Amino acid sequence: MKKRKVFVFIFIGLALGLFIIQPLAISLHMYDMQGDNGEWWKSLLASYQQEFRVWDLDQAIIKLLFGLLGIALSLMFMVRQRIFQLTGRKDKLEEIRELIAAGENQQVEFKSTLRWDLRQFKPNKALEDVIAKTIAGFMNTQGGHLIIGIDDEGSILGLEQDYGTLKKPGKDGFEQYIMQLVSLKLGTHFCTLVKVSFHQFEEKDICYVRVHKSQKPVYLNLGDRSHFFIRTGNGTRELDMPEALEYMETYLN
Questions:
Q1: DSSP string, 113-148
Q2: Pairing of the two strands 144-148 and 108-111
Q3: Over the stretch 52-79, which tens digit does the pLDDT of each residue have?
Q4: What does the alpha-carbon distance between residue 123 and residue 181 come to, in Å, rounded to a whole number?
Q5: What is the mean pLDDT of the chain?
Q6: pTM to 2 decimals?
Q7: How far is 162 from 233, CA to CA, in rounded Å?
Q8: What is the DSSP letter of 235?
Q9: 249 to each of 81, 242, 246, how far by Cα in Å?
Q10: What whole-number distance in Å separates Cα of residue 180 and Cα of residue 60?
Q11: 43 and 108 share one domain
Q12: Keywords assigned by UniProt (predicted)?
C-alpha cells in the first residue's frame, strides 16, 4: 500500500511538471521575450501546443528536467504530509498516556473489553450495553474519553480477544461494530459525535473513543423502553423520568 502511494505521488508529480510547471514557465518566458506585450494566455496556449509536438533531444531533456522537478515537489509534499501525521499521532499517544495515568473521572472511562467476557470466556451482549451506556452518559454530560482494552487500574489488556469475536476481525471490524452499536442503541444521527481511533501501548492495541457532547437528549434503547444516563464522578448513572426532565431543562437547553 505504501509503495502504491509513492507511485501515485510520482505520477502526479510527473504530470505536474510536464503539464503545469513547464507550460507556465515557457509561456512566461515567451511573454517576457515579447516585452510583456500582447495577451499572456496566447503564450500559454502556444506552450501547450509545443508540448505535444515531436520531441527532439533538447525538448526531451527539458521535459525530463521539468518532470523530475514535479516529482521532487510531489514527493516533498508527501513527506511533509507524513511528518504531520506522525507528529499528530505522537501528540495523540501522549494525550492518551496522560489520560490513562490520571485514571477514571467524569470524562474518562476505561473498559477491559467491548464484548468478550473475561470471566465466562465468551462473548457477552450485556457488555456491549455497558459500552453504549457509557457513550450515552458522555453525550448527555460534557462529552468524554472512552478507552477500551485497559482495566480499571490502567493496565493494558489489548483487543485481541475482542477481535476474535467479530465477523471482520481487526481494527476496521472493531470500529464498524462500535458505530453500529451507537446507531442501533442511541440513534444513527448521534454517530457523528463519536470518533474512533486505535493506538499501540506495550505492543497491544487499544481503542480510543472520543465522545462529544450532544445538544439534545440521548436515550439508550434497551428492550422495550428508553433509558437516560449521565456521568457523575467516575461512573454512569441512570435518571428516572422526573430527574431526567429536570436535568434536560437545566443542562441541555
A1: -SSEETTTTEE-HHHHHHHHHHHHHHHHTT-EEEEE
A2: parallel
A3: 665 677 777 888 888 899 889 888 888 8
A4: 15
A5: 87
A6: 0.68
A7: 28
A8: E
A9: 45, 11, 5
A10: 56
A11: no
A12: Membrane, Transmembrane, Transmembrane helix
Q: What pLDDT digit, counting tens, does each position of 98-110 carry?
A: 888 888 999 999 9
Q: Is 212 exposed, middle or buried (0-12, 13-18, 19+ CB in 10 A)?
A: middle
What is the amino acid identity at position 45?
L
Query: What pLDDT digit, counting tens, does each position of 127-179 carry?
Result: 999 999 999 999 999 999 999 999 988 899 999 999 999 989 899 999 999 99
Domain range for 47 is: 2-99
Regarding whether 243 and 137 lie in a shared domain, the answer is yes
Query: Which of 112, 145, 135 is CA-nearest to residue 229?
Result: 135
**Claim to verify: residue 94 and residue 120 sit in the same structural domain:** no
CA 245, 250, 252, 253 torsion-angle sign? positive
Cα separation, 37 vs 40, whole angstroms? 8
Nearest CA to 159 out of 191, 119, 202, 107 is that of 202
Residues 123, 204, single domain; the answer is yes
Burial class (CB in 10 A: 0-12, 13-18, 19+), 108: middle
Residues listed for the chain: 253
CATH number of the domain residue 167 falls in: 3.30.950.30
Nearest CA among 206, 117, 106 for reference residue 155 = 206
- Crossing angle, helix 171-185 and helix 125-140, to 10 degrees? 70
Q: How many CA atoms lie within 13 A of 148 on its CB side?
A: 27
Map residue 211 onto helix, strand or coil: strand
Q: Which three cell numbers stand for residue 204?
A: 497491544
Q: Which of 50, 68, 99 is the last residue of a domain?
A: 99
